[in-house]
Amino acid sequence: MSPTKHLRHWLHLLGVQGGTLSHKEKFVSALGGFLGIFVVAVISRHSLNGTDALFITASMGASAVLLFAVPHGVLSQPWPLVASHFISALVGVVCAQTIPNTFLAGATAVALAILLMHYLRCIHPPGGATALTAVIGGPALHDLGYQFVLSPVMLNVVAILVCAIVFNAFFPWRRYPAFWGREKKHTASAATQESISHEDFLNALKEINSFVDVTEDDLLLIYELVTKARAQGHMQATQLHLGGYYSNGCYGDDWSVRQIVDESSEPDPAARKVIYKTVAGSGKRSTGCITRAEFASWAKHEVFRDDKHWKRILPESSKDQKTGHE
Hints:
By secondary structure, the protein is α+β, with helices and mostly antiparallel strands. It has twelve helices and six strands. The longest helix has 25 residues, at 23-47.
């Protein structure tokens, strides 16, 4: 096995996914997180003093990652955010007041929070931190009793929720809450929705038997885009042009991108010979010479390089309207 394949193997084992986000999106996420936590920190400072305020800010910091880095995710939506922190804070206070042993109280609080979040369909990982904070917090936090649930926890939750809604609204491609963007964005066609029912999704998820952080609408959209791309088939010889980059559309180690660097001058375009070089993926830096027809049967679609990723150019779009990820 080559060093590159060894590296990919270990990255796969570690769960490292290929990045497809632009630098702009990453910086927007960071800016949103900064603004959200700044607001929460100010509120926490007025509600609690010292270390206890830092504990609350840390709990909200985990929520900020979800709300601003993955605003479209299932775990990031308003119901999981609000319900999880409320339930977790309440459970944490109960455990802190009824279980004398701090270690046992903390473990019980987190376990009950997870259980309730599952049944109430409000899984939101930072909720576990809120439950634990209610147990291991200092005297000032414990003195709040059940007031801890409303202030600072729910006060902070409302603050970061409002901040997320307002901030993400300035960026059209970001959806928060997710249902607000469904009418504005492309949704699956009626044919796709009829071919895959809600019950089909439920049965499939039961087979997986694990929480999947993606909405049913997103799954439908992904399915439609993939099937549409597959239906388009390979390219035609007349679509190829000198200097263009083309991908075979394969996955894993078989994926590659070739650039046409020269071609012969036969009258019949399909009979012309093209000289290409492989610029990415399998066979990188190799060259070859085949007919246009042979190259077209290999090529799945034209691509271009942007922000360290190869992206697909849709056939019906001009070169200035490029979209999709390779």
